[in-house]
Amino acid sequence: MPLSILIAVLLTASAFAFYLGRGRAVAVAGGHVRNLHSLPSHYGAYVALWCALPAFGILAFWLVVEPAAIESFVVAGLPPEAANLPPDRLALLLNDIRNLADRGLVAGSGDQTVMAGAEHYLSLQRLGSTALTVIAIVLAMAGVAVGWRFVSPELRARNSVERTITAILVASSTIAIFTTIGIVLSLLFEAARFFNTVPVTEFLFGLEWSPQTAIREDQVGASGKFGAVPIFAGTMLISAIAMTVAVPIGLLSAIYMAEYAAPRVRSVIKPLLEILAGIPTVVYGFFAALTVAPFLRDNGSLLGLDVASESALAAGLVMGIMIVPFVSSISDDVITAVPKSLREGSLGLGATKSETIKKVVLPAALPGIVGGILLAVSRAIGETMIVVMAAGLAANLTANPLQAVTTVTVQIVTLLVGDQEFDSPKTLAAFALGLTLFCVTLVLNVYALFIVRKYREKYD
Amino acid sequence: MAALEMTTPDAAGNRPPKFSTKNVNVFYGEKQALFDVELDIVENQVTSLIGPSGCGKSTYLRCLNRMNDVVEECRVDGSILLDGHNIYDRSVDVVQLRAEVGMVFQKPNPFPKSIFDNVAYGPRIHGLTSNRAELVELVESSLIRAGLYEEVKDRLDNPGTSLSGGQQQRLCIARAIAVQPEVILMDEPCSALDPIATARIEELIDELRENFTIIIVTHSMQQAARVSQRTAFFHLGKLVEVGDTEMIFTTPQDQRTQDYITGRFG
User: Fold this and answer.
1) In this complex, which of B95, B105, B113 lies closest to A341 when CB atoms are compared?
2) A96 within 8 A of A85, measured Cβ to Cβ
3) A41-78 pLDDT, tens digit each
4) Is A102 on the interface with B (CB under 8 A)?
């Protein structure tokens, strides 16, 4: 039975179990629902959980262990000379077997060992699938029976059901947390492998970045230099340009929206600004590469400036526009959250509106605004698409915004795009870069959230 | 409608009213909040405005320094004369008006600044002092008059929000005094305070009467009786009765006033 049908069957069975349990509860109470500890639907849910949880538990368990189990059986069934192959050759052989089995057995394709292995593999898979179906359905039935027998007026069905639901909720949230931990760990381990070949100090303080390593011993011109300073400098340069654009525009538009705009104007402008946040970054990317960069180059040459066709300025400007809604929307929120009593207090002393905003509203909103700006910075640092398309690949160590620079995210992309071998420092460098980037944005985000929270405590 | 004839003491030697309001109608959009209010406020006295919630007493108070300008859709008709000049006249500068008519709000609202900067806020925006020494002196004298100086003199650099509720409200009064207004409007200044802090503020109001004309909105009839010389009773947007506090609380002329002060409604 295919997995999807099995799941459907189990769900249907649980639904039936619900009605069975509810009916049973009413029956044992002799028709008087008041005699029951919980509502009849709680008893229904109780029996349904008895039906569903064990069956789905075994299902999940099987899906996790199935590949490894089948593989070990197949290896055990191989002829001795194949089973005693060195591990990497054995892995290749298993791969062949799996491919053949997945494509369907075609007589005469491949050698005898592979054919036999594939047949074994398929039969094991069929057996496993049948066993799973039978076991799951039997467990579901048994669950219904157990739950049904437990139903009595004294059974605290509501408490059990609610405890189980809490457990399911906790499990869901832990899955998200464990995924994050998994990602961080994989970054850590791969980065550790990179730092085995390239010293940490060279990576963090080296001034030259050219990640091309020799594939063959006799290759020339590709020595591999892994000094990350130029690309972090590039990231900082572009982020700085972006923030120079985003902070004034975002903040001033937020002040206008929160303090001056009539409600009708505000109801138009705010969604329009938020549309900016909805534009896919790849669209910003080609806007930067095809419109802004040539524009800057042409006008730069008119002024006698030598602007590279892919310049930090073009990428930074467009990224700044992209971040404007971030800054403006968070600033708007915190400015609106400043209590009206403070504004009235200031106006009541004879301050004008602009004095009130400058001297009372903005200082009160400042921590929140700073938090919002820090979040925007971490967004700018992590932004990829715009810089991939508009900033260039050359790892120049420069503070000149008219030259091409490269960023951490761009380098990660170029290091991993295409066919790669995953044991060379070149590819592993991507993980080291990713880890460093992760640390930087993590610190920024934690600090920003800390500031925002501190601010909230003050006025709520 | 700017009535410009200067008010002079009448034959009996009574001082001219500080505020003289006639036919004041206030609308919030379509809804009328005040109907033909006619009320004179006597200088250097405490006038209290009492009445059930929503009766228009706060609305009336906020007309006197044009704080209603901030509220959109709010329209004020009629004549409100301060020392004989209509404050809703085109030539009137709202900033100047609010410097003359200060306000203390229901909830203490110190700015997120130091105690010193809170009090110095008004003098700074109006350019009242020409150097630091004068400013310090003005801030200290305002704090002294608000009865707060002894409690905060060693921590003028602490944030104003670090004070207790009652202290914050006295800080707000000091802030209003520092602008050197002639009138102080108080919108239920004690409703967020405990009885001890309330007693302290009431004492202060009585002291301030010497130098300022004070108009106070209050829900507490005991408070009105304790601090004010004149009392005005509002009901459903209309001024029902106004007179000496003692008279209002002992021999009210109107049945509604009688009912309200004896607690039959409100």
Assistant:
1) B105
2) no
3) 999 999 999 999 999 999 999 888 888 888 888 888 77
4) no
Q: How far is B115 from chain A (nearest CA, A)?
A: 14
Mean pLDDT over residues B161-173, rounded? 91
DSSP A294-347: HHHHHHHHHTT----SS-HHHHHHHHHHHHHHHHHHHHHHHHHHS-HHHHHHHH
pLDDT for res A202: 87
Q: Give the nearest chain A residue to B64 (CA atoms).
A: A348
pLDDT tens across A394-412, in order? 888 888 888 888 889 988 8
The CA-atom distances, in angstroms, between A418 and each of A413, A415, A422, B14 are 10, 8, 12, 96
- Please, which residues 181-220 of chain B have a Cβ atom closer than 8 Å to chain A? none
Q: What number is the ipTM of this complex? A: 0.86
**Is the CB of residue A346 less than 8 Å away from at least one CB of chain B?**
yes
- pLDDT tens by residue, A331-356: 998 899 888 889 999 999 989 999 99
Q: Where in chain A is the domain with CATH 1.10.3720.10?
A: 225-459
Question: Rounded to a whole number, what is the distance in Å from the CA of B152 to chain A's nearest CA?
Answer: 21
Q: How far is CA A377 from the centre of its chain?
A: 18
Chain A partners within 8 Å of B102 (Cβ): 348-349
Residue-level pLDDT at A215: 60
B98 in contact with A at a CB cutoff of 8 Å? yes
Task: Answer whether CATH 1.10.3720.10 is correct for domain A225-459.
Answer: yes
Query: Touching check for A341 and chain B: CB below 8 Å?
Result: yes
Q: How many angstroms separate the CA atoms of A396 and A404, rounded?
A: 7
Residue A345: list chain B partners with CB under 8 A: 105, 109-111, 172, 175
Under a CB-based contact definition with an 8 Å cutoff, are residues B21 and B37 in contact? yes
> Within 10 A of A126 (CB to CB), how many other CB atoms are there?
10
The string of pLDDT tens digits covering residues A380-391 is: 998 888 988 888
Q: Mutation test of the interface with chain B: which of A334, A343, A344, A349, choosing the one with the most B Cβ atoms within 10 A?
A: A349
